[in-house]
Design goal:
Helices cover 30% and strands 17% of the residues. The protein has 189 residues and is of the alpha+beta class. The chain has a single domain, classed as NADH Oxidase (3-Layer(aba) Sandwich), CATH 3.40.109.10.
Length: 189
């Protein structure tokens, strides 16, 4: 599968099976995803692997952040949850750019997991930046939680589910004041 095909066919899998990548498989996927564009090669990100009973720690923290007791059922929706953390402590690069790099890692990771046959969905929470969730994830000073990738096996479907194609023309514009036309073959633009 080409990168274009992987991007075009990507979809979120809100229901997944108990199949999850092994530790070594996950390491290989993270190594590939870590090749994302990264100004000054800071690698301003890390992931937290959440499996098994560790999901209960997240479940309790999610409820506590919402002012509730007990355990949220959300972390039981997938056998592997990957927390994405951005380290925005560097003063060399703006914080937004460090978060963009970490977000890029999350998306690249979701693509490689999907291509490897795993169902993935991205999840955030109103309390993602709360002190409760920061503590539960063991975040260091200068780190922020971006969200989680929920990962599991892709369930069998009786028919394929297709997402609507993105109308790219609605999302592409030209620089104001630039040339009004260009030749497609003109590489000098």
């Amino acid at each position: 599968m080409s990168a274009l095909e992987a991007m075009r066919d990507r979809r979120s899998w809100s229901k997944v099976t108990d199949l999850a990548p092994t530790g070594p498989e996950l390491e290989a996927f993270v190594a590939a995803a870590g090749r994302v564009a990264d100004h000054k090669t800071l690698r301003p990100w890390r992931i937290i692997e959440i499996r098994g009973s560790d999901r209960d720690v997240l479940a309790r923290a999610l409820n506590k952040a919402d002012g509730k007791r007990g355990y949220s059922s959300k972390p039981r929706r997938a056998p592997l949850i990957i927390a994405l953390v951005a380290d925005v402590s560097s003063k060399k690069i703006p914080a937004w750019e460090q978060e963009a790099t970490a977000s890029g890692v999350a998306h690249m990771l979701s693509l490689v997991l999907d291509e490897a046959g795993f169902g993935v969905f991205w999840r955030t929470d109103d309390n993602t930046r709360s002190k409760v969730l920061a503590k539960a994830h063991g975040l260091n000073k200068g780190e922020v939680l971006l969200g989680w990738l929920y990962v599991g096996g892709k369930p069998q479907r009786s028919r394929p589910v297709r997402r609507k194609t993105v109308d790219a023309a609605k999302h592409i514009s030209r620089m104001p004041g630039g040339k009004k036309s260009r030749k497609v073959d003109d590489v000098s633009l």
